[in-house]
Amino acid sequence: MTVITHSRRKSRLGNMIDSAGGIAVGVALTRARANISSLRDKALTEVTRHIGELAALQQPDTQEEKAESLRRIYQSANHLIDAASPFGLDQVCAVALSLCDMVDRAAAEDAFDWRILQVHIQSLQLLNTLSPEAVAEREAVSAQLASMVAKKFGQTG
To answer: Residue 121 burial (CB < 10 Å; 0-12/13-18/19+)?
Structure first.
């Protein structure tokens, strides 16, 4: 019998932390938190901008318009996730992810009910206007949207 072993390589980050003159993990985390918190206002502006772009979209009339609208919705939803996730906007991310799932469904169906996309976008608008302290209201919006999706398409996940 032959035994194969793999030599373990230490990561560059591990080497940097362990090397003389490197930085402590706690210091690195503190600096990272400070750097990311300085980006919060810019990220929240991006969230608001992408929600506005989603709200401005109209239901398409042709297949070409449908494909372009779905692409734009999917792209904006992904941008929302990217901008919101580092700042704990979990409900916004969950609705944006659900919106991506709905875009996938809409692309596959000719007779897709576009009101579902509008409800997602309205939910994003509402979540974006609620204060961070409105935890119960945020959870209610997310729960109602999840309930609507489950009723329309059956249980998911």
So the answer is: buried
